[in-house]
C-alpha cells in the first residue's frame, strides 16, 4: 500500500496537483480504492518496462559505438586471438558469431571463443560481428556490428628478388649450394645473396672455396665482402681463390710435410718446446697464405684502378688432416666470420678463431687492411687444435652468425651450437629440415631452403660451410 501511495503522490507532485491538509483523509480513501490500486500497478509495470527497455537500448548503442579490437594477423603465420568481452565490459552479450572470416582462411570457434587459422591474404578485412544481448527474445534477429581485421602482408613478400647483372665483368651467381666429399668427410656449403642486395638487384658479396690437397690435408675458406665496398664481390673471390692456390703450390705442399714431423715430436714429447715449434710453423705457413691473399688483392686493385678499400673482405680458413691420434686443425681469421669444431657427441665446442667485432660494426677488420699484418695481435689470429674426433666443422659469415648467435659471447656456449643444429634439423618457425646425410639426395635443396630463413633486420649475404 505504501508503494501505491508513494507512486500516486509522486505522480500528483510531478503534475503540480497539491494535496492540502484538509484533503488528506480523502487522499487516503482514494489510495485504497480498487481502481486506484489497479491503475498504480499498471503505471509501475509500465515504468519498469520503459526503464528496462531504455537500459537495453543504451547497452546496444554502447556496443555498436564502442570499438572491438582484435590482434593483427600476418599472412601465412598461424593466428589465434580470443574474443574477450571482459576488456570491453560487454557482459550483456549472450550469443554472437563472426561472419566473413572464411574468405581469408580464418574461422571462429564458439567453444574456445577464438579466431584461428592461417591468413591467406593481407589488407583491412571487413567482417561482421553479430550478437544478441540479455533480455532479448530467443527468436530476435542478431544485431550487426562491422569490424575490421588487419592482416599484415608476409614480410618476405615485401622484398623483391631482382637478378644481378650477369653481364658485369665481376658477376657471380646469386646463390650457390654444394655437397661434395672432403677428406674422409663431406662438406655442405651454401652462399646466398642477402635480401638487401636482392631487393635492388645488386651482387652477392660473400664467397667460399674448398679442396682436398695432395698431401692429405683439406681446406675450407670463406670470405665476406663488405657491402659498402663497390668491388668486394671480387675481393672475396680473390681472397678465397688465393688461399686455395697458395696451398696447392708445390712449395706449400712440401712445407706441410714438416708439420707431420713436428706433430710426431709433439705427441712423443708434450713439452713447451714442441708446442712453440708447432705454433711458429702455423704462424709462418698460414701467415704466408694470408699475406699472399692481401698482395693479390693489392695487385688487382692497382690493375683495375680502384682502391684496396673498394675490395674490403673478411677472411677465415681452416686446414684439417686426419692422423692416427686424431685430427689436426690449423686456422686463420680476420673479420667477423666464426669457425668452430664440435666434438663427436656435440657436448663441447672449440672455437678456431676470435672475431673482430665492435660497437655498430666498428671493430670489423678486413684482409685488405695493411695494418692487420703490422698489429701486435696478428700472431693471435692463428690457431692449432688437435682433436680426437669431431662431428662438425663449421665456418660461417656474419649473415648466419648475427641472427643465429647474436653476440660474440654466445659462441663459446655449446648449448647455442646445439640449438643451432636443432634449427638445422627443423626446429624453426618454418619447419625447414636439413638431413645431414651424404646419401640424402635432397640435401642441397633442403639446405638452400633453410638458408632463406626469416630474421627481422638481418638481410645480409649468408655463407655457411659444414664439414660432417
From TrEMBL:
What does the organism's lineage look like at the top?
Bacteria, Pseudomonadati, Bacteroidota, Cytophagia, Cytophagales
Give the Pfam families listed for this entry.
PP2C_2
Asked if the record carries the keyword Hydrolase, the reply is yes
User: Would the keyword Membrane turn up in this protein's UniProt record?
Assistant: no
Enzyme Commission code(s) on record: 3.1.3.16
Protein name, please?
A: PP2C family serine/threonine-protein phosphatase
One GO molecular-function entry = protein serine/threonine phosphatase activity
UniProt organism field: Rhodocytophaga aerolata
PPM-type phosphatase domain mapped to chain residues: 186-467
Listed A to Z, the keywords are: Hydrolase
Amino acid at each position: 500500500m505504501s508503494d501505491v501511495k508513494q507512486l500516486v503522490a509522486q505522480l500528483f507532485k510531478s503534475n503540480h496537483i497539491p494535496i492540502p491538509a484538509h484533503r488528506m483523509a480523502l487522499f487516503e480513501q482514494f489510495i485504497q480504492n480498487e481502481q486506484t490500486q489497479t491503475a498504480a500497478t499498471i503505471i509501475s509495470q509500465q515504468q519498469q518496462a520503459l526503464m528496462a527497455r531504455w537500459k537495453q537500448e543504451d547497452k546496444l548503442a554502447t556496443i555498436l559505438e564502442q570499438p572491438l579490437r582484435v590482434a593483427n594477423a600476418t599472412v601465412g603465420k598461424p593466428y589465434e586471438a580470443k574474443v574477450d568481452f571482459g576488456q570491453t565490459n560487454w557482459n550483456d552479450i549472450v550469443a554472437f558469431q563472426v561472419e566473413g572470416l572464411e574468405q581469408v582462411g580464418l574461422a571462429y570457434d564458439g567453444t574456445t571463443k577464438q579466431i584461428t587459422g592461417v591468413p591467406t591474404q593481407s589488407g583491412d578485412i571487413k567482417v561482421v560481428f553479430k550478437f544478441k544481448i540479455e533480455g532479448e527474445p530467443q527468436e530476435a534477429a542478431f544485431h550487426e556490428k562491422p569490424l575490421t581485421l588487419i592482416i599484415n602482408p608476409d614480410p618476405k613478400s615485401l622484398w623483391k628478388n631482382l637478378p644481378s647483372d650477369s653481364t658485369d665483368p665481376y658477376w657471380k651467381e646469386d646463390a650457390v649450394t654444394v655437397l661434395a666429399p672432403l677428406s674422409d668427410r663431406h662438406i655442405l656449403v651454401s652462399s646466398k645473396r642477402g635480401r638487401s642486395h636482392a631487393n635492388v638487384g645488386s651482387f652477392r658479396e660473400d664467397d667460399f672455396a674448398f679442396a682436398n690437397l695432395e698431401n692429405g690435408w683439406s681446406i675450407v675458406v670463406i670470405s665476406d665482402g663488405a657491402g659498402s665496398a663497390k668491388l668486394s664481390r671480387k675481393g672475396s673471390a680473390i681472397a678465397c681463390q688465393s688461399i686455395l692456390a697458395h696451398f696447392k703450390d708445390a712449395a706449400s705442399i712440401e712445407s706441410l710435410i714438416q708439420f707431420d714431423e713436428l706433430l710426431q715430436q709433439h705427441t712423443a714429447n708434450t713439452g713447451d718446446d714442441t708446442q712453440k715449434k708447432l705454433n711458429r710453423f702455423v704462424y709462418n705457413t698460414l701467415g704466408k697464405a694470408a699475406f699472399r691473399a692481401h698482395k693479390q688483392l693489392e695487385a688487382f686493385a692497382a690493375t683495375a684502378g680502384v682502391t684496396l678499400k673498394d675490395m674490403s673482405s673478411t677472411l677465415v680458413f681452416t686446414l684439417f688432416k686426419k692422423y692416427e691420434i686424431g685430427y689436426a686443425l690449423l686456422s686463420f681469421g680476420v673479420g667477423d666470420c666464426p669457425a668452430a669444431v664440435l666434438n663427436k657427441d656435440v657436448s663441447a665446442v672449440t672455437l678456431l678463431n676470435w672475431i673482430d667485432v665492435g660497437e655498430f660494426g666498428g671493430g670489423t677488420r678486413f684482409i685488405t687492411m695493411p695494418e692487420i699484418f703490422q698489429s701486435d695481435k696478428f700472431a693471435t689470429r692463428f690457431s692449432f687444435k688437435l682433436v680426437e674426433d669431431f662431428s662438425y666443422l663449421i665456418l660461417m659469415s656474419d649473415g648466419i652468425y648475427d641472427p643465429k648467435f647474436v653476440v660474440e659471447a654466445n659462441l663459446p656456449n655449446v648449448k647455442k651450437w646445439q640449438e643451432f643444429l636443432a634449427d638445422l634439423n627443423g626446429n624453426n618457425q618454418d619447419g625447414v629440415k636439413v638431413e645431414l646425410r651424404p646419401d640424402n639426395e635432397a640435401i642441397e635443396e633442403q639446405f638452400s631452403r633453410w638458408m632463406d630463413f626469416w630474421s627481422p633486420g638481418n638481410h645480409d649475404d649468408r655463407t655457411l660451410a659444414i664439414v660432417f
